[in-house]
């Protein structure tokens, strides 16, 4: 393998994993960020967020001399490859905010040598790459779209066992980028830039569609006295459908699905196309988040002064990421109704801010004397806890709203509780 000089902009979930994994493969990598606190943590040999397996790979890459960190403003040269892995958060109208991407491109134009390849890992709307190429081409910089499909919680494994590598750009540019992935046995999809960009959005939109579809079936199950776990198990056995992402619950969250579905809908409208299906997917997801609160109100009546626990705060297990986590919106709705909320998460921390709820250190502490609990994240620590004992700690009517369909309802009932799942008989 030929060792390459690589600069990665962004030391977040995608950038740090990209940088550390490329360094572990033998390349010389510099990861740059603008967040000084994050850089200090990294320079001290620690990883600033929870991602299983990442700390080990970062520390051995640092020890080998292949991985270094720095501030983006201090960069004087960029090496042969520049990976862009900065955030593309949503604007108020749902579009992707490309301000961070643009500031990196501005810097690259000034500092990178002709012949450098900019590799876009950030999720950017179709059409972005073509526009950025117009800025880069006059100074001899090539551009490739290489969207990222890693899943937080298994990101390192996903890098080394990728299910696909998508490369959009000129053939010669794509070949150069493909060489960086030598040793990773995954199908390579080489295509034009806009198609590569759309593959990322279409993938996330489709997965979100599967989730909202399962949730619609769950709502129907509630009315038909059918069981959504059994129904979707039977549906998912069809190899044309598959079992993944058919789990009913309080809907998707995180830093990708909500923003990417909204950005794709926004982009469709801008291009004169009304994406009906995607709008419905987004709407269903919004409604699922309301379900725990309306259900609790239906049983408890006025929530003012009622003590309610929320179990799990991150948007999914095995990450500390709380961006767009359903739990946070549910907490906001509960507190807006006057409930006293206690939250627990094994890893995630909700910073002090406008939310007036108490985050406690154990599940038992959250549940003690609570009249109801909403299970918002299916952490194994929560799903596999002794719910008979936990329910017994609660106060009547001991309502357990299992927003992830991950608990054993019999254990809750054995503890004197009332179990409510999503579409579960
Ligand atoms: N998190 C995921 O699971 C995931 C998966 C696939 C794709 N993506 C996409 O990858 C991109 C990054 O996502 P993330 O979750 O890693 O974001 P993140 O917020 O964890 O990290 C982004 C980092 O970029 C840094 N940054 C901002 N401006 C910068 C600049 N000018 N120079 C250098 N660094 C700068 C920020 O300080 C931050 O540390 C987004 O477009 C996202 O949609 C994310």
Overall description:
- By secondary structure, the chain is of the alpha/beta class.
- It has 2 domains: 5-191, NAD(P)-binding Rossmann-like Domain (Rossmann fold, 3-Layer(aba) Sandwich), CATH 3.40.50; 257-420, Rossmann fold (3-Layer(aba) Sandwich), CATH 3.40.50.720.
- It is 43% helix and 14% strand.
- The chain has 16 helices and 14 strands.
- It has a 6-stranded parallel beta sheet with strand order 3-2-1-4-5-6, with helices on both faces. It has a 6-stranded parallel beta sheet with strand order 11-10-9-12-13-14.
- Strand 9, helix 12 (326-336) and strand 10 (340-344) form a beta-alpha-beta unit.
- It is globular and about 70 Å long.
- The mean pLDDT is 97.
- Bound molecules: nicotinamide-adenine-dinucleotide.
SSE order and pairing:
Layout: E1 5-9, H1 13-24, E2 28-33, H2 36-43, H3 54-63, E3 67-71, E4 81-84, H4 99-111, E5 117-120, H5 128-136, E6 142-145, H6 155-160, E7 165-168, H7 171-180, E8 188-191, H8 193-224, H9 228-236, H10 257-270, H11 276-300, E9 307-311, H12 326-336, E10 340-344, E11 358-360, H13 363-367, E12 372-375, H14 380-383, H15 387-393, E13 399-402, H16 409-414, E14 418-420
Parallel strand pairs: 1-2, 1-4, 2-3, 4-5, 5-6, 7-8, 9-10, 9-12, 10-11, 12-13, 13-14
Helix pairs in contact: 1-3, 8-10, 8-11, 10-11, 11-12
The protein binds nicotinamide-adenine-dinucleotide.
């Amino acid at each position: 393998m030929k060792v390459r000089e690589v600069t990665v902009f962004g030391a977040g979930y995608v950038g740090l994993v990209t940088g550390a994994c490329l360094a572990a493969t033998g390349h010389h990598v510099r990861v740059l960020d603008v967040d000084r606190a994050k850089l200090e943590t990294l320079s001290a040999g620690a990883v600033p967020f929870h991602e299983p397996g990442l700390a080990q790979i970062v520390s051995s890459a640092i020890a080998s001399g292949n991985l270094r960190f720095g501030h983006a403003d201090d960069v004087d040269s960029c090496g042969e490859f520049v990976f862009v892995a900065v955030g593309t958060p949503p604007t108020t109208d749902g579009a992707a905010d490309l301000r961070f991407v643009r500031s990196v491109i501005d810097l690259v134009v000034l500092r990178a040598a002709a012949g450098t390849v900019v590799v876009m890992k950030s999720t950017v709307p179709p059409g972005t790459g073509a526009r950025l190429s117009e800025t880069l081409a006059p100074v001899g910089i090539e551009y490739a779209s290489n969207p990222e499909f890693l899943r937080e919680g298994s990101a390192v494994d996903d890098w080394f066992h990728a299910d696909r590598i998508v490369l959009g750009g000129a053939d010669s540019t794509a070949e150069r980028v493909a060489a960086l992935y030598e040793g990773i046995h995954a199908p390579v999809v080489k295509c034009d830039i806009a198609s590569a960009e759309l593959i990322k959005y279409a993938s996330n939109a489709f997965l979100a569609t599967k989730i909202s579809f399962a949730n619609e079936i769950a709502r129907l199950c509630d009315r038909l006295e059918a069981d959504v776990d059994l129904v979707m198990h039977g549906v998912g056995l069809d190899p044309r459908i598959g079992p993944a992402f058919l789990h009913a619950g309080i809907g998707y969250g995180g830093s990708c699905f909500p923003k990417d579905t909204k950005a794709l809908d926004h982009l469709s409208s801008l291009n004169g196309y009304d994406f009906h299906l995607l709008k419905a997917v987004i709407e269903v997801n919004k409604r699922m988040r309301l379900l725990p609160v309306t259900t609790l109100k239906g049983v408890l009546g006025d929530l003012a002064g009622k003590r309610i626990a929320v179990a799990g705060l991150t948007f999914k297990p095995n990450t500390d990421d709380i961006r767009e986590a359903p739990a946070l919106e549910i907490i906001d709705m509960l507190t807006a109704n006057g409930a006293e909320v206690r939250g627990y998460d094994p890893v995630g921390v909700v910073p002090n801010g406008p939310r007036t709820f108490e985050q406690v250190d154990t599940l038992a502490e959250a549940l003690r004397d609570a009249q109801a609990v909403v299970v918002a994240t299916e952490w194994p620590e929560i799903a596999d806890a002794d719910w008979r004992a936990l329910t017994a700690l609660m106060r009547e009517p001991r309502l357990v709203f299992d927003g992830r369909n991950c608990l054993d309802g019999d254990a809750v009932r054995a503890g004197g509780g009332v179990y409510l799942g999503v579409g579960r008989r």
